DNA sequence: CTGTTAGCGCATTCAA
DNA sequence: TTGAATGCGCTAACAG
């Protein structure tokens, strides 16, 4: 049963639109504050940015005037005049994915404490879109870029180089970084999980990932899985490998398909988003024992994984920390530290009941 | 068992830092393009913004020069000169919460097609923080604001009024809007769910929400629940009402507590975030039948709710649509439409197996 | 259709 | 410690 409610109202009443006399929006400027405080424009500018360089008397007079007038500085003009920016741009594959939200949160928190702000966009997993966004961000003269991606178009690379802004790449450890890197290694993590599953006694370990052709992170994870098999002395088996779209439904189908194609599979490592959760729910629906009938491991430690029945084995990646460290590295650069940073923040294998 | 890997490397190698001759970052300016194309500065400006006003010949010459030089316009200067902005600011309670991510996504998508961008911040559910962020956004001279909140500090209201920027409030339908509203009614939605549960035959319907003292949306939902009871001719029972923090664990505790305090409760309506999912998992762990032993309903239609066993009854709110419509209303205002908008986008009650 | 003049609001640099 | 001159890179308004 579905109830529905929706109404649309057009009204003429609104506080702002009635109060808005001068369209375009503005307010007091610095000179207005200067007049009110009986000082020069420069003194106001200083009172706001380097208050310690003024006598206590004038400083107070200026700040009082600022309060009284309700002056809000124009940081666009400040940016233009000083050639410095208080904004950093971050591009993630998808805003809706809570994994990236963690990274964004870490970045935003650190930037805020430094009085800076974050311009966010999502590329929809597309390099072309990323290129367009990088152009837009550079046009806004952001002070730095954080890219959750390590593949870029030639034009994007060229724009970044010409702009000379500091850049952080996250999401993987690239061979040839643009500038700074704050990340973990997808290949190392996938290999570690593969070895872990083997150590738990599983003989036929399946691997399900997103499309490795278009997604480097998926490709690296697959590489790690195969490296794990190799170091175990096991052969690669196409029946045990699948590439599927993201999503809960996709995970459930992948599990069922693989168990049909390779009935002796005893564990499946889902190296993408929420695939493992979808598979677990499917097992619940079918009454399959996890790990008795099939063991399930995931890649990211989503909050929910430790609440399901059974709880899910997975990797834990330092998403929030990546965001924080990225922001810190960027701030360092803007302050003039010129030591490029390559941070591999590592990962953990979290063993739970599902394996 | 936990594996761990983490390495930290400081290196001096980096493409950009070596290529970066002129620190501070810049590139070609418009006059460089003008020289290269043999035209005036204004012609370049027009070629980029109103190409149809130029002869095909000059336009091509300019755009070729732009390509060749790799010119990236400085929209900070453009903004200052034109007193227009290509950026909109959005403040949500939490970036990490995927509910808000949907709204953000809708906003960002619509803005992008209009060549605009989104500055995002989270207030951490605090009005004070919201005030600070509004100040920062206005300082950046954003062209509009989208606030997922309907309670604001007096100073915030004052700043907004003085700036004269268009504002959208989302997240509830306020009695006294600042400007435009694009939302749904929390009270109506909660009442509808309460009546729905009664129509399914449940006699003792519990209500669990977030803190109603600090969170207006929680307060409105509680009001809707009580209105529902009243129209059913049922009395308010404190034993059937709880306020708890957010989170899966919190939901599971709430369910257990309420069933201990009021053993005859036959359905619980969880009006916050992921509480219902936490409760369902707890029921699975304890082997309680849902809805046999206890029925469970949630508020937001998270993707996962239709995959759990059993699937969860909930409300469906038009999060993405709220983002889209907000952006559209804002764009309309910037273009000069001055009809304030009050949109109630409604909701649906989704009946599934858990009730 | 194209160019010229003026100035957006602030910070830098110098002088007082 | 404070102030005056100059310009950041671009667009509006006008002239040609």
TrEMBL record, chains A, B:
Pfam families: LacI (PF00356), Peripla_BP_3 (PF13377). Residues 28-82 form the HTH lacI-type domain. The keyword DNA damage does not apply. Keywords: DNA-binding, Transcription, Transcription regulation. InterPro entries: HTH_LacI, LacI/GalR-like_sensor, Lambda_DNA-bd_dom_sf, Peripla_BP_I. It comes from the Bacteria. SUPFAM superfamilies: lambda repressor-like DNA-binding domains, Periplasmic binding protein-like I. GO terms for molecular function: DNA-binding transcription factor activity; transcription cis-regulatory region binding. This is LacI family DNA-binding transcriptional regulator. It comes from Caenimonas aquaedulcis.
